[in-house]
Amino acid sequence: NGKLNVAIDGPAGAGKSTVARRVASKLSYVYVDTGAMYRAVTYYMLRHEIKPEEVDTVLAHVRKLDIELIPAEGGQKVFLNGEEVSGPIRSREVTGVVSLYSQIEDLRHHLVEMQRKMALRKGVVMDGRDIGTTVLPDAEVKIFMTASVRERALRRFKELDKTEEVTLDQLEREIAARDKLDQEREVSPLRQAEDAFVLDTTSMSIDEVVEHIVTRCMEVR
Ligand code: C5P
């Protein structure tokens, strides 16, 4: 059908989801936010008071979980066992511990299987940490998006829900801590694929980044 798969990886707050969503919309592709899947699992575990150390219990529950990503205007909606959780999975409570659950090897295998199925028919823009390396190693376009920690903290700060009291420094520390966990975990850590194109977006606008990626897709196709 002439469609490609596009993998977009990078650290927290690099703007991957905004960019991936827009690229998908420009190409009429489906956007898949894999971080939302790890967040949905984390939200469920917090709600049921299951700790990341309780690996067997986590896995038993994960296998029965129904996670759905539904394309919606302006992005995607996330459903957990039929209940919409798009908002709550973005809370700082979930953000603070998601990297602890996402280290669990069999949990990753389970989600990666789901993600691969979503991309079988091509025409998917998927963002995450291990898409180009593990989930879709054959993706036709692979982008590794980065930006300085300060810039990423600043971007998050600007989009923050003003009811959450947090300083820019605090955000920067939280982002740096999550990067560290994501980069140092044993199973498919955050790392750029050898054949990924690295985009440092520190001083690029969203439009520029989107244009750049769309152009690469056109060239490949
Ligand atoms: O992309 P987002 O910041 O929403 O991802 C939340 C967390 O989910 C990441 O910090 C990481 O621990 C985990 N994640 C992952 N692999 C992915 C996507 C997200 O481990 N492909």
What is the spatial order of strands in the main beta sheet?
A: 2-6-1-7-8
CA-atom Rg in angstroms? 17 Å
**Looking at the structure, what is the overall shape?**
globular
Catalogue the unreliable spans.
none
β-strand amount: 15-25%
Q: What is the H/E string? A: EHEHHEEEHHEHEHHEH
- Ligand set: cytidine-5'-monophosphate
Helix proportion of residues, in percent? Answer: 40-55%
Count the beta strands: 8
**Number of distinct helices:** 9
Q: State the separation between the terminal residues, measured CA to CA.
A: 11 Å
Structural class: alpha/beta
Biggest pleated sheet:
5 strands, parallel
> Please, what is the average pLDDT?
94
Q: How would you sum up this structure in a few lines?
A:
This protein is an alpha/beta fold and 221 residues long. The chain is built from nine helices and eight strands. The strands form two sheets. It has a five-stranded parallel beta sheet, with helices on both faces. Strands 3-4-5 form a three-stranded antiparallel beta sheet.
Can you tell me about this structure?
Keywords: ATP-binding, Cytoplasm, Kinase, Nucleotide-binding, Transferase. It catalyses: dCMP + ATP = dCDP + ADP; CMP + ATP = CDP + ADP. It is found in: Cytoplasm. Belongs to the cytidylate kinase family. Type 1 subfamily. With 221 residues, this protein is of the alpha/beta class. The chain has nine helices and eight strands. It is globular and about 50 Å long. Bound molecules: cytidine-5'-monophosphate. Cytidine-5'-monophosphate (C5P) binds next to helix 2, helix 4 and helix 8.
